[in-house]
Structures are given as structure tokens and as C-alpha cells.
Amino acid sequence: MEEGIKSPLNGDLKKEESIKTSNGGSIIDHDKDKMANPVAVGESVKEQPPLVKHKTKRVATLDAFRGLTIVLMILVDDAGEAYPRIDHSPWNGCTLADFVMPFFLFIVGVAIALALKRIPEIKPAVKKIILRTLKLLFWGIILQGGYSHAPDDLEYGVNMKFIRWCGILQRIALVYCVVALIETFTTKLRPTTLGSGHLSIFTAYRWQWFGGFVAFFIYMITTYTLYVPDWSFVDHFDEDEPAKRYTVICGMRGHLGPACNAVGYVDRQVWGVNHLYSQPVWRRLKACTFSSPHEGPFREDAPSWCRSPFEPEGLLSSISAILSGTIGIHYGHVLIHFKGHSERLKQWVSMGFVLLIIAIILHFTDAIPLNKQLYSFSYVCFTAGAAGIVFSGLYILIDIWGLRTPFLFLEWIGMNAMLVFVMAAQGIFAAFVNGWYYEDPRNSLVHWIKKHVFVNVWHSERVGTILYVIFAEITFWGVVAGVLHKLGIYWKL
């Protein structure tokens, strides 16, 4: 999504504003975006060079944050097995990997505010939103539905009986669609200027917050009041044993454990148990394996739910995730309305710390524990608060102090986020390289580099793995993204 920050809400459509870094580089330029009229209000046709093609300027801080999130995703996905402490928390708690999804949704919210700051016609805007949503859903099912077995399994195809309907891009699609449609349909309700007071930005966009709180209430009411009956499943994925049916005893409401929560019950009813994620992270719990926090064989006395599928990007938890996008769009609105660095940072940092405090109180009082799998309210607050603080930190470094050069590789990755996500995070490029092997599939260039250049040199599987991820994946794709940026090549949905 393209970003810019020229806004009619500031009451000035005649002048284009540019925020400069200390070294003179333009970080945020106001210019026309994809949905803007070719001639701004108050400008004559003569003042517009007819043959000049205007380009939408991007927000460097947002690109860098997007790139950082992609880097984190690659790191935790490919090094998490060696370092389970950075992998997803098996249930309650929050690790490095658990920040990736809400950071993406926060970014989506900020980008929506910038891209839809000016909407001449609602109908074309809605069509573009729906089309982009469908594209995200399509790629999500292709990449995470089971069709692709990248990067190590040299096969493709999916048994439709077990296709996974949910995933990362599907959740982003839902949040994007809801938040963007609210932003679009309320465009005529936006004030031309903000009132005085710290809370004026909230009241100016009350309908966006109303949509976020509707999602919050749907999630909370369903999670704590829906009756979850006993349920059963057939374990088709244990290669060592024949398919066997297990029964999970529930019959309760408001349970927040792995077995009987409403989040899992809704997904089993809507999608069917066979269409959920077959390798949930709760398998690393001590109740399931003696290898905890690593993944390992099940204990003989492991409860039956340890073997069951569970969808971490399911329907009810994705409704809760809408609030992450709502908080992100608020940060985008602050960027549009407030011109001074200090004004923006006051809004951003104060909200970030308030969210962190709320989350910590809820978690440590056991009222609502941090839980990525359930996408609990405390998890929304904690990760959104962290996203706000990190975003503010990057803004200080890049926009205020002018330290743009050290973060260029993050910008490059952020500008080609979809390409790096598909090729690196989803392992498509590594799968292509692995497809060219000598005699044995393990004799491929990827495996040879990892083994001989990293693992054998450092005489450590763990150290070799993380160095491989840093240099052969993150650094490699940073360079590729930089080259593509110089060539003006981007993959956009």
C-alpha cells in the first residue's frame, strides 16, 4: 500500500508539505496518492505540467518498521527451532515471535490512514479494498493452505479434506478490509480541523474506535459466555501410529486453557477440525512433552488435546485482531494531523505506555493473560503498545536525528515486503534451490551452505543456524531488495 501524508483534514489543500531530515533527505513528502484527483483543489490546470507523472512518496519510518517486522519473522521462523525461547510461546506469555503478527496489523492500520486520507469517490475506493482483500486471501490459501510444502519437502499439492483455510495473510486481509472500509465510509464525517485537547484526535475518529470496540465486545462476550461442549477429533498426522479418535472433555464456559476455549470451538464449528493448523505450538508445553520448551515426542500421559489441531489465526481471534489495526490507524491519523515532532511523539509514546501498563496489569493479576493463540485483549494491548514505542523510536532515529542510512536495508525490505515474505519467510526461493540436488535431496546448495559454511565452521548447530539465518537469509534478501529498489521493481497487491 502506498503512503503519503497530505491531508485535507488540516484545512490546506493548496500546499504540499515535506518533512526533512537533518541531512536534507526527504522522509515524508506530501503528494498525490492513488485515490487522489490529478489536480488538487485551488490549483489551476496551467500550474500542473501535463506530461509530468507524479509519484506517491513513501514514509521511510513505516517502511523501516515493516522491514524490521519481516526480518523478525524470518529470524523466529528459521531460528526458532534452535532457540525455542524466541519461538512462539506455547500458551500464555509473549516471546519475540509473538510480536510479528500484531506488528504487521499495526503497520496495516498506519498505512490505511495514509493511503485513504483523501477519497474523492467512495465506490472506486471500496472496489480497490475488496480486490486487495481477495488477493490477500488467495495468496494466503496458496502459501499456508497446505499446497506449498516449501522449503524442504520437494512436493506440492494439498488434500482438500485437510486444506487450511486460515493463515497470516488471511488475518491481515480481514483486518485490512474492516478497518479500510470504516475509514472509507466515514470520510465525509471527518472534521476539517482538530479541536483543542489531547483527546481531540480520538473524538475526531470516533467511528474507527467504535468499530474497534465492537470487535472487542464480540470477542470478549463470545470468549467468556459461549458454552464449549465435549468434542472429538481423529489424529491423521501421527506417522508412527494409525489414525485414532480422541475425545476432549469440556462442558464449560470462559475457559482460557488449550482444551476448552471458545476460540478453538468457533473454528471447529466454522471450518471443521480437519481444516485447522495441525502443528500448534502448545505441543511444546510440559503437559505434552518432556522436551519442553523444545518440541519432542508426546508423553505417555499427555492429555488428548496435545494431539489435536488448533488454528492460531482463526475467526474469533482475528475479530480481536481488528483492534490491533484500529490502534495502528490511530497512529496514522496522528501522523497526518500533528505537524510537530514533539506533538506526534507525545501522542504516540503516551498511548504506547498506557497500553503496556494495561496489559501488564491484566496479565500479572491473571485477569486476562497474554496469549497469542487466543489473541487476548491483554496481548492486543501489550503488542500494540510495543509497536507504538518501536515506531516512535524509529521515527526519532530516522525523521528527527536523520539517521536514515543505517536503516536503509530495512526500508528496502519494507518496500518489497510481499516479495521477501513469499520468497524468504515462506521458503519459496529456498525450495526452488533445494529442487536442484545431486543424488540425494539433502545434497543441495542450501543445505551445503548451511552445513559447511556455518554449522561445521562454528561446530554448533545452534550458532550455525542463527548465523545462517542472519547472513544467508536476512542479509541476502536485504541486498536483493536494495537492488530491486534501485531498479524500481516492487511486488504490490
What's the total number of strands?
8
**Oligomerization:** single chain
**Helix/strand-derived class?**
mainly alpha
Order of helices and strands: EEHHHHHHEEEEHHHHHHHEEHH
- The amount of helix comes to 40-55%
Can you tell me the residue ranges where pLDDT is under 50 for at least 5 consecutive residues? 1-56
Strand content: 5-15%
Largest sheet data:
2 strands, antiparallel
Mean pLDDT: 86
Strands side by side in the biggest sheet: 1-2
Euclidean distance between termini CA atoms: 8 Å
Secondary structure tally, helices: 15
What is the 3D shape? globular
Q: Roughly how many Å is the radius of gyration? A: 24 Å
Summarize the structure.
This protein is mainly α.
Explain how this protein is built.
- The protein has 493 residues and is mostly helical.
- Strand 7 and strand 8 form a beta hairpin.
- Helix 1 crosses helix 11 and helix 11 packs across helix 15.
